[in-house]
């Protein structure tokens, strides 16, 4: 059984019998290495290397040291007592050896030990060629040096210019105190061809607790770092909507810069699905083509497909090009079938092609973009408008004109479409002039800009028969602030407190915008920097009028030596002097004196503990618009406890959720992981996950149960089992992805 290596230099797992020589460079699982360090060594001969002199691998001379030497016959010598023979970096140790000068052979009949850079072995009988040729060992135990692994073989034959042969092989990565090991791989005949980097085995079986799991009459595997074709570890699982789910991937090593994977997947309730993935590297970039095809879904009664293509390139300095295209046959594809490309939490699939330039002074972007709705709960909603194409140019920083005077520019030209039909064009340009003035302890940045927006609309998009509506208005702002620092005496440590008051004034006159369409404009998500934006919308279809003052105060207490924060917080308020007219559909009118507060706070009482709080408060309605509270405790990478509360009322459907997650070792071998996501608004469990992992020195088993909401009134549940044999691979369903996701937590408000 072989495994797939990412052609962008990621590690392979499951090298199969390549472990027999230890020449692979598989990165061992960190948790398995931690367990192995506790359980004991795999190679008991490793300490002998430190006791022997180092050799030169290019030195072909043979040096022999023994307590006694005598002649047996012409050309043969008997060496006795602590015999050590060295050739290059290879050492041969034995109580007694016979050296045949005419044949250049060392033979041992009373046991011998061979130490090399890649492999150590002990044999009852051995015959070693000192100047090339065949060597033979019988009743041998071998130990790998470049990675954990050991085994036994009835016969090992090595050849300088040909393949090596091993008979009646048993291999495991378990420590020596486990005897044969909790798991082992047994093969009748193994051939290792070092020139081609390829090995083959016949009549190979994998045993776990002496129970056979896998049998194959013939097996090919790599013995170097090069990839090779072969079957990957199968995936097995079960779920309500798919039944028994079995996938058997086959990996094809096409060329050093190309590979492909073909995966037949059988779902007992839906049928046979074929999956295919092709990846490539070239001087022009890297990319991936992926496809899934399920003919005649037994439940839905129709063919279902997924296509995905991604490409990333850097055609020249400061330039990059990207293509990201994914399409599915129906809106419920991800929810029903899941997939290695699952995006079940996404509302839309994005399809885009973009060319970008990022220079020292300018950023340019040309892209085409469209979307596909993949959330069944929003069936019937119109998809976002297509951008076919969009061109954006902007200055990276204010560019000096003369003296302290500088300009900034952002311009956009975009054509919108829907279902392949033109809906209209939009041109938007904002040119600003300012005099940035920063003196370290204080700064004042006045800016005056003019924003011009013009449309050319299709007939069905026109409002009040306006085919070419326009909007032009000035934008004036002054941003100012102070920076204070002082030393604090707090306990035995030195601390530094910062205090930064900030004042921002914004004036934008009101303009009638009801005749302008809404192509891509929306209210942004929670972000403290919104307090200092010149437009409270994302998108050019609406420019909010404003006559308002933003006051903000930021403070932090930091470690005087490292600068790490102990406590930090920010409070800001927008005070509107004059009201704003309703701009987007269903948006309320803001009155004179209406204010919005935004606050953020974080505390780090210990290096392993963090508490965070965010809120957006509407003083008119006396209610929170958005809110996040989170506490996270993580003393080690595998020890995590987190609790979070999220509220958001500015969405079409308000959201209020509690999320609890934990991962914790119960004993040295046993650990548990769990997550509970609950909707307070709907009084409903959104996801419940409980998993248990038992990890020994050389194997691990993971069992998880998951129950989650697929749709408003549909609940799915499944039980997942995965067995990991260290050094060989994983058997069962790939549950690690959603176990990891349960542990990540939510870093930002949704």
Write a brief structural summary:
The chain is mainly beta and 750 residues long. Helix content is 4%, strand content 58%.
Explain this structure:
This protein has 750 residues and is mainly beta. Among the domains are: 16-226, Lipopolysaccharide (LPS) transport protein A like domain (lipopolysaccharide transport protein A fold); 229-381, no CATH class; 654-750, no CATH class. It is 4% helix and 58% strand. It has four helices and 45 strands. A hairpin with a 3-residue loop joins β29 (437-438) and β30. The longest helix has 10 residues, at 30-39. The radius of gyration is 34 Å and the shape is elongated. The chain starts with 29 loop residues before the first helix and ends in a 6-residue tail after the last helix. Mean pLDDT is 83; it is low at 1-37 and 744-750.
């Amino acid at each position: 059984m072989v495994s797939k290596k990412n052609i962008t230099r990621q590690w392979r797992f499951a090298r199969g019998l390549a472990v027999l020589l230890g020449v692979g460079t598989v990165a061992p699982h960190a948790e398995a290495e931690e367990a192995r360090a506790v359980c004991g060594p795999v190679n008991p001969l490793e300490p002998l290397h430190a006791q022997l002199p180092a050799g030169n691998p290019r030195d072909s001379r043979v040096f022999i040291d023994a307590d006694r030497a005598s002649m047996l016959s012409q050309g043969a010598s008997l060496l006795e007592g602590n015999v050590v023979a060295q050739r290059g970096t290879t050492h041969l140790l034995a109580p007694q050896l016979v050296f045949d000068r005419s044949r250049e052979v060392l033979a041992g009949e009373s046991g011998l030990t061979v130490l090399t850079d890649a492999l150590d072995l002990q044999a009852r009988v051995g015959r070693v060629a000192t100047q090339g040729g065949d060597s033979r060992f019988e009743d041998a135990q071998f130990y790998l040096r470049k990675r954990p692994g050991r085994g036994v073989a009835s016969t090992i034959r090595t050849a300088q210019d040909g393949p090596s042969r091993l008979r009646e092989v048993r291999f495991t990565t378990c420590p020596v105190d486990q005897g044969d090991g909790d798991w082992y791989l047994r093969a009748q005949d193994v051939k290792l061809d070092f020139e081609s980097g390829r090995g083959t085995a016949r009549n190979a079986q994998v045993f776990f607790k002496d129970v056979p799991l896998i049998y194959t009459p013939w097996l090919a595997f790599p013995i170097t770092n090069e990839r090779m074709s072969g079957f990957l570890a199968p995936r097995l699982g079960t779920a309500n909507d798919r039944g028994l789910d079995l996938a058997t991937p086959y990996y094809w090593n096409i060329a050093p810069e190309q590979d492909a994977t073909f995966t037949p997947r059988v779902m007992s309730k839906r049928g046979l699905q074929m999956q295919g993935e092709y990846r490539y590297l070239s001087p022009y970039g890297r990319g991936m083509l992926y496809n899934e095809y399920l003919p005649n879904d037994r439940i839905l009664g129709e063919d279902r497909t997924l296509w995905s293509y991604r490409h990333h390139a850097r055609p020249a300095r400061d330039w990059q090009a990207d293509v990201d295209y994914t399409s599915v046959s129906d809106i419920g594809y991800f929810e029903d079938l899941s997939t290695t490309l699952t995006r079940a939490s996404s509302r839309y699939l994005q399809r885009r092609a973009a060319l970008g330039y990022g220079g020292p002074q300018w950023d340019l972007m040309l892209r085409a973009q469209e979307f596909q709705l993949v959330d069944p709960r929003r069936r019937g909603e119109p998809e976002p408008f297509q951008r076919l194409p969009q061109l954006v140019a902007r200055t990276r920083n204010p560019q000096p004109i003369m003296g302290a005077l500088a300009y900034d520019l952002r311009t956009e030209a975009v054509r919108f479409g829907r279902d392949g039909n033109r809906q209209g064009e939009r041109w938007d340009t904002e040119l600003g002039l300012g005099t940035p003035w920063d003196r370290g302890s204080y700064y004042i940045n006045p800016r005056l800009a003019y924003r011009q927006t013009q449309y050319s609309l299709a007939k069905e998009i026109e409002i009040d028969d306006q085919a070419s509506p326009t909007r032009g208005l000035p934008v004036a702002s002054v941003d100012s602030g102070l920076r204070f620092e002082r030393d604090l005496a707090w306990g035995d440590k030195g601390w530094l407190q910062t205090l930064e008051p900030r004042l921002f004034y914004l004036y934008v006159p009101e303009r009638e915008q009801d005749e302008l369409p809404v192509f891509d404009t929306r209210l942004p998500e929670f972000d403290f920097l919104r307090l200092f934006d010149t437009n409270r919308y994302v998108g050019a279809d609406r420019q909010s009028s404003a006559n308002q003052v933003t006051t903000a105060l930021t403070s932090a207490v930091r470690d005087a030596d490292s600068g790490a924060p102990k406590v930090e917080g920010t409070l800001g308020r927008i005070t509107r002097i004059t009201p704003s007219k309703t701009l987007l559909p269903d948006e309320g009118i803001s009155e004179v004196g209406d204010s919005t507060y935004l606050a953020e706070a974080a505390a780090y009482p210990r290096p392993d503990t963090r508490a965070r709080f965010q809120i957006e408060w509407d003083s008119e309605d006396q209610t929170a618009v958005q809110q996040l509270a989170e506490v996270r405790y993580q003393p080690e990478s595998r020890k995590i406890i987190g609790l979070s509360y999220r509220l958001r009322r500015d969405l079409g459907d308000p959201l209020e959720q509690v999320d609890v997650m934990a991962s914790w070792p119960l004993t040295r071998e046993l650990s548990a992981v769990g997550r509970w996501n609950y909707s307070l608004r709907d009084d409903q469990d959104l996801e419940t996950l409980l998993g248990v992992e038992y990890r020994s020195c050389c194997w691990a088993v993971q069992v998880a149960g998951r129950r989650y909401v697929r749709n408003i009134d549909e609940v799915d549940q499944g039980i997942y089992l995965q067995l990991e044999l260290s050094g060989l691979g994983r058997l069962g369903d790939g549950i690690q992805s959603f176990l990891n996701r349960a542990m990540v937590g939510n870093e930002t408000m949704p």
